[in-house]
């Protein structure tokens, strides 16, 4: 049975139902790290894909576990998340990166000239896209597409059964101007499977305007 797409942002609904949800989430990841569990698999893949000192956007960054790890290795990292508490944790734990509160469906990061900032890699891990309301998904992909540098790549990972069918994601990505270049079933690049997708996408080139 197909899980219906959420009509409300899943994270905001969870916080409304439990005001301690974000604090519990942050503590859960701190506990995992204290236990010696490997929580940086996604970050290692992004680091392997990136040139040294790349501009990286951690889209839906949570407590900064991915972006913070990448910043420690010399990348220029910006993280965005809609939860103020999670951003406060990221700022405390990973001060070498830049952390901003914001909704991906309205993502607009300007540079010093007022133009959209460009990123060599945008990563959205941890099932972030499945937390978005159905109406937020295409706008979020469009906004991320707008922040990709020439030849930049968007890397997304999420599981099945969370209200976002892989085929629907691929269709939304295409509508947003993104091309699915490769896809895998794990962050260790195992072959595609039905339970999880790690997708690598690039921007579809905009054809030059034709002189009349």
From TrEMBL:
Molecular-function GO terms, alphabetical: methyltransferase activity
InterPro entries: Methyltransf_25, SAM-dependent_MTases_sf
Domain Methyltransferase: 56-152
Keywords: Methyltransferase, S-adenosyl-L-methionine, Transferase
CDD domains with a match to the protein in the record: AdoMet_MTases
An individual GO BP term: methylation
Protein name: Class I SAM-dependent methyltransferase
Species per Swiss-Prot/TrEMBL record: Gulosibacter molinativorax
Lineage: Bacteria, Bacillati, Actinomycetota, Actinomycetes, Micrococcales
């Amino acid at each position: 049975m197909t899980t219906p797409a959420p009509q409300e942002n899943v994270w905001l609904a969870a916080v409304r139902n439990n005001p301690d949800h974000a604090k519990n989430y942050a503590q859960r990841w701190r506990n995992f790290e204290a236990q010696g569990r490997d929580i940086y698999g996604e970050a290692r893949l992004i680091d392997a894909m990136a040139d040294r000192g790349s501009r990286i956007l951690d889209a839906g960054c949570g407590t900064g576990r991915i972006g913070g790890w990448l910043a420690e290795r010399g990348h220029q990292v910006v993280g965005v998340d809609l939860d103020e508490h999670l951003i406060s944790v990221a700022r405390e734990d990973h001060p070498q990166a830049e952390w901003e509160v914001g909704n991906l469906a309205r993502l607009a990061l300007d540079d010093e000239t007022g133009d959209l900032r460009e990123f060599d890699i945008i990563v959205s891990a941890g099932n972030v896209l499945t937390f978005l309301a159905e109406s937020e998904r295409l706008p979020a992909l469009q906004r991320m597409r707008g922040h990709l540098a020439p030849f930049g790549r968007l890397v997304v990972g999420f599981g099945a059964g969370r209200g976002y069918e892989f085929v629907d994601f691929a269709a939304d990505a295409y509508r947003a101007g993104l091309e699915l270049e490769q896809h895998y079933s794990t962050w260790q690049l195992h072959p595609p499977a039905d339970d999880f997708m790690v997708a690598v996408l690039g921007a579809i080139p905009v054809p030059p305007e034709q002189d009349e």
